[in-house]
Amino acid sequence: MNLIAAPFAHWLLLIALFISVGLILHAATRIAWFALSQEQLTGWFGASVVVLGFWQMKANIQPGLSFHLLGASALAMIAGRDKALLGLAAVLAADTAYGHGEWASFGLSYLMIAFIPVTLAHGLFIWAQRTLAANYFIYIFVNCFAASALSMWSVGLLTCSLLAASGAYPLDFLLEEQLPYYFLLGWPEGFSSGIYLTLLVIWRPEWVSTFNDAFYLTRKN
Questions:
Q1: 85-97, pLDDT tens digit by residue?
Q2: What is the pLDDT of residue 117?
Q3: Which of 107, 108, 83, 198 is nearest to 158 (CA)?
Q4: What is d(CA 40, CA 205) in angstroms, rounded to the nearest whole number?
Q5: pTM of the full predicted structure?
Q6: From CA 7, how far away is CA 163, in angstroms rounded?
Q7: Which of 66, 104, 145, 185 has its CA 20 to 30 A from that of 135?
Q8: What are the pLDDT digits (tens) for 157-216?
Q9: Is 208 helix (H, G, I), strand (E, B) or coil?
Q10: Where are the beta strands (DSSP E) in 5-132?
């Protein structure tokens, strides 16, 4: 899912890079660094390493077309939106340094596989807390499973649309040979995130910044 730079105009790559750098810096300034507990740091750093591991298990089909689990929504639930955006920037930089991406397209890749899924997961989390019942199953199935699956499908749809608009690949090829795989990947993405978060909220809830026992136990519906 790390995009290559060749199919895209230089102005688009530059704009995407400036936007991405701005988002990363904004996220960094919003984090209360000196107030972070050891548990929060452990959950954040540990989940970021797991995401980096997910990204190494990928299938390369064509230049600019590869498939791997994202883990972005799960990281957003564990660390919160701002720390997830910062963690994914570090993950993408490490993955690019390994030779799995191009620095020229770093900004565009970041927007596609980091900012979009994290924003979607965070928005769904806020909506669920405000409108749905305060229930453990709502958290797991909506905020973890459904958000992760939707993020994969959204990334796949936007990636195929971007590649088609750039002329990198024919639209028919992308719709027939690539987009269905993103749909299939949505299920293991949701399942792995749901299982991972379920285990964490049972055994290590202090590592999950978006999970609060008091909210689910004392809120009246």
A1: 999 999 999 999 9
A2: 96
A3: 108
A4: 10
A5: 0.92
A6: 8
A7: 185
A8: 999 999 999 888 899 988 988 899 999 999 999 999 999 999 999 899 999 999 987 776
A9: coil
A10: 59-62, 65-67
* 67 phi/psi in degrees, rounded to 5: -125, 130
Predicted confidence at residue 100, as pLDDT, reads 84
SS3 content of the chain, % helix, strand, coil (to 5): 80, 5, 20
Q: What count of other Cβ atoms lies within 10 Å of the Cβ of residue 11?
A: 8
Q: What is the mean pLDDT of residues 95-120?
A: 93
As given in the structure block, the two tokens for residue 166 are 């750039």
CA neighbor of 201 nearest in space, from 87, 86, 74: 74
Q: Which residues make Cβ contacts (< 8 Å) with residue 184, sequence separation at least 6?
A: none
**Residue tagged 């991406």 (tokens):** 101
CB-based contact 198:140 (threshold 8 Å) = yes
Is the distance from CB of 198 to CB of 144 less than 8 angstroms?
yes
134 has pLDDT over 90: no
CATH number of 10-218: 1.10.1760.20
pLDDT at residue 217, rounded to an integer: 62
Structural contact between residues 40 and 209, judged by C-beta atoms closer than 8 angstroms? yes
Q: Report the distance separating Cα 34 and Cα 174, nearest Å.
A: 46
Indicate the domain borders of the chain: 10-218
Exposure string of 30-69, with b = 16+ CB inside 10 Å and e = fewer, is ebeeeeeeeebeebbeebbebbbebbeeeeeeeebbbbbb
Count of CB atoms situated within 10 Å of the CB of 203: 8
Q: What angle do CA 139, 196, 181 make, to 5 degrees?
A: 95
